[in-house]
UniProtKB/TrEMBL annotation:
The chain crosses the membrane at residues 6-27, 39-58, 64-85, 115-136, 148-171. This is Lysine exporter protein (LysE/YggA). It is found in: Cell membrane. It is a multi-pass membrane protein.
Length: 203
């Protein structure tokens, strides 16, 4: 695997990270409340990505995604979870301001939400079984290359989400006020519900 291949792969990965999706919405929701919560959410997303990387390295993702029934179940579960998170945010925005809404959620809960939103997203698995193999040298051992590319992906993601959290955490002051907090919950809630619907339509 050449340095040029790694550089091109890094460029593709960064473009993928910059395109808004479920991970964006989940991390944005938490980082806008506080910087620590944003970092915990980012860690949850990247740990979910590590699951996809490991599965791909051992061929599990490819085997699962080549089964129409398994893929359908996976995408429905993933879509349902995104819709659940979105509905939760929308409900919070409509039920009125309460002291508990301002309090920072437990780190374990933030991590679990971010981890599950990523690991239940079949599109994340698809990246590792469709895009990533394009950069693998078929003449060499495949699993080690997948792990190297996957670790590069996760490392770049850690840098990207770190910057993302630092920038969006500036909104935390605004989020202590009821109005902006409701707007963010409604925007991210609607986006998550929409992304869940789009996920169901994935073929």
């Amino acid at each position: 695997m050449s340095a040029g291949t790694l550089a091109v792969f890094a460029g593709v990965v960064m473009i993928a990270y910059m395109i808004p999706g479920p991970d964006w919405m989940v991390i944005l929701r938490h980082s806008a409340r506080s910087r620590p919560a944003g970092f915990v959410a980012a860690a949850g997303v990247q740990c979910g990505l590590a699951v996809h990387m490991t599965a791909a390295a051992f061929g599990v993702s490819a085997a699962l995604l080549h089964s129409a029934a398994v893929f359908t179940v996976l995408k429905i579960v993933g879509a349902a979870y995104l819709v659940y998170l979105g509905a939760q945010a929308l409900w919070r925005s409509w039920r009125g301001s309460r002291a508990s809404d301002v309090e920072e959620p437990l780190p374990e809960r933030v991590f679990r939400q971010a981890f599950l939103s990523n690991v239940l997203n079949p599109k994340a698995a698809l990246f590792f079984v469709s895009v990533l193999p394009q950069f693998v040298d078929r003449e060499a051992a495949v699993a080690p290359q997948v792990l190297i590319l996957g670790l590069l992906d996760i490392g770049l993601g850690a840098l990207w989400w770190g910057l993302f959290v630092l920038l969006t955490a500036r909104l935390s002051g605004l989020m202590r006020r009821s109005g902006p907090r409701k707007v963010l919950d409604r925007v991210t809630g609607t986006a998550l519900v929409g992304l869940g619907g789009a996920l169901v339509a994935t073929s």
